Amino acid sequence: GGLIANGEPIGASGLRQVYELVQQLRGTAGDRQVPGDPKVGYAQLYGAPGTAGVSILSR
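RESULT FIELD:
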């Protein structure tokens, strides 16, 4: 699961997470769609020591 299942795109892991959040919030994630009607999505990633990022999306 997670980004490893998506090939761990080097340099684009965060963008891949944001893309998935957008699909979930739009309701267009197909078989991966979470149940219910999501209103907020959260993505977190880390890189080299001391490097981290968070994205919170809502609709």
